[in-house]
Amino acid sequence: MFLIHGALHTMNGPVIADGFIELDGEKIIAVGPMSSLLDIPAGAIDLKGAVVTPGFIDAHCHIGIEEDSIGPMGADCNEATDPCTPHLRVIDAVNPRERCYAEAVDAGVTAVVTCPGSANPIGGTILAMKTVGSRVDDMVLLENAGIKFALGENPKRVYKGKNQLPSTRMGTAAIIREQLIKAQKYLEKKERAEANPSKSEPEFNMKCEALIPLLKRQVKAHFHCHRADDIYTAIRIGREFSLDYILVHCTEGHLIADDIAKEGVPAICGPLLTTRSKPELSNSTTANPGAVSKAGVLTAICTDHDVIPMPLLPTSAGFAVAAGMDYEEALRAITINPAKICKLDNRIGSLEVGKDADILVFDGDPLAVANKPKMVFVNGIRVK
């Protein structure tokens, strides 16, 4: 299949003003200017100058585990009975048949990183997936896309009401440290037993097992953190345990952007289109992702769906542009940047040879409030 005469925002170089994309099955096999295409094959789809982008990626959300409109029956986001649950796996809770997936695709969101909630200091294993399909196992990009951690107000609020640890920021950090130290010691015992058969294996511990890929830096820690002091706690814990980690929400990142940049840690900013509904959001602003990005931080924008509906992902990027973010950087914040941050850029995030054919076609500005893609391709199949 060929798409021809499109204005290609490839996300890996300059815009190709008049370009083509060739698809073969699920993959992109050629991208370039029309001038390099010697023969236009029969059946090519003429886009007539339409804007073409990679599929949008929501780097932090709860789609499929906080189901739309059905209340507690569809609430599988937080196992708020134990503050330390790294062994929970999002893939076991996702319902890909809920209507929000179709709404996401309609808005051009073709991939998501769906996470446990922020009730627990350690919430569980994150899933990266496509938004098209009926069986979650067939939609997976990364079954273990990281471990969710939460700092600040949420764990305090949940467990203070239960009159148990943690009811303070100190308690939250202590639970995280304690479990990471247990996992370190567990891993050391396993490695000693593997190296020396005379040594006994540790008694099986599912929580520690879940954290081994994190300690080996095979997956990332996603730290929910809004306030600047919580961001610094995430950085402190990340340093202590040599974690590969991400700052999620990073609401006060604009106040400490230079410090974040010096640490070399990426940030997923959002949701942007909400009220300041709790104390740690008092300094929230749509200028945040632009300020963080301009400081040199690799920045993505998220919806935190169901906090705001996933179709508002491109609108969020548009609001960030209105508040000072560079336009192309805002597009990168919902395409290649989240792919890089979440270790998905080998498959998605840009229009490149070898990548999944997740492609959007627009009449006009992709970030305009009144605009939606007129064509959506996922894995090379036109789904809109």
3D architecture notes:
With 384 residues, the protein is an alpha/beta fold. It folds into 2 domains: 90 residues, Urease, subunit C, domain 1, CATH 2.30.40.10; 293 residues, TIM Barrel, CATH 3.20.20. 26% of the residues lie in helices and 21% in strands. It has 10 helices and 18 strands. Strands 1, 2, 3, 4, 5, 16, 17 and 18 form an 8-stranded mixed β-sheet that branches. The longest helix is centred in the middle third of the chain and has 27 residues.
> What oligomeric state do the depicted chains represent?
single chain
Q: Give helix and strand order, one letter per element, not per position.
A: EEEEEEHEEEEEHHHEHEHEHEHHHEEE
Number of helices: 10
Measured between the Cα atoms of the first and last residue, the distance is 16 Å
Percentage of helical residues?
25-40%
Category from helices, strands and their pairing: alpha/beta
Overall radius of gyration: 21 Å
Number of strands: 18
Whole-number total of structural domains: 2
Element layout with pairings:
Layout: E1 2-8, E2 16-24, E3 27-33, E4 45-46, E5 51-54, E6 56-61, H1 100-106, E7 109-114, E8 122-125, E9 127-130, E10 140-142, E11 147-150, H2 153-160, H3 169-195, H4 206-215, E12 221-225, H5 228-240, E13 245-249, H6 257-263, E14 267-269, H7 288-294, E15 299-301, H8 313-322, H9 327-332, H10 336-341, E16 359-362, E17 375-378, E18 381-382
Parallel strand pairs: 1-4, 1-5, 6-7, 11-12, 12-13, 13-14, 14-15
Antiparallel strand pairs: 1-2, 2-3, 5-16, 7-9, 8-11, 9-10, 16-17, 17-18
What is shown here, in short?
This protein is an alpha/beta fold. The protein contains ten helices and 18 strands.
